[in-house]
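ok trying again, last paste got cut off:
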Amino acid sequence: MKKKQIKILIVDDHPALCFGLKSLFQRYDDLWVAGEAANGEEALAQAKRLKPDVILLDLALPKKSGLEVIKEIKEKVPTAKIVVFSSFSDGKLIFNSLQSGASGYLLKDTPAEDIIQSIREVYEGKPQFNKEIEAKLIDYIQHDHSSNLLYQNLTDREQEVLKWVARGFNDKEIAKKTNISEGTVRCHVSNMMHKLELKNRAQVVLYAIKNGLVKLNDKI
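nice, full thing came through this time. structure:
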């Protein structure tokens, strides 16, 4: 049975980089570059038209900032997973990108095989950022470890599921770990994110780290 192709939109204003990424993705049967965009306005238009599975997006865009684009795309095409592809590793920028709705953050010097793996895993529902990015995030938010009262509103099972999500497991893997059905896991994840006012799994990771629920070496 043929694997479903992951529909990708590349957003970057450097033609050579776009060409290189497109050439890379063409080597894999499960990846399909459906379109490209060179600025923020084009990115939003293409996302609405193509409804991609994964958007690889630079933050330094003409016409609209990358953070604005992330927020608008998540409003208009909520099913699209956005992976920031940037030259900048500033902790605050990474944090703001994930808070805006991105599901992952990669640096432009990331090895090709890691880019491919990240796209596949984001598509499967796993937040993606490597150890360097995680370390930058922790460094940025480590000054605030105050507990969040919203956590107390979670059931025991929702608290358990939160920690599995924060460690990078998807619904199918959590179902095996907890001996409950995948559908029940999805329900717990949805309820947990609603109660904590979180938009996506990357924000669950940020929440868990900020509140001391998981540590860097807890993650897979």
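cool. The mean pLDDT is 87. The radius of gyration is 17 Å.
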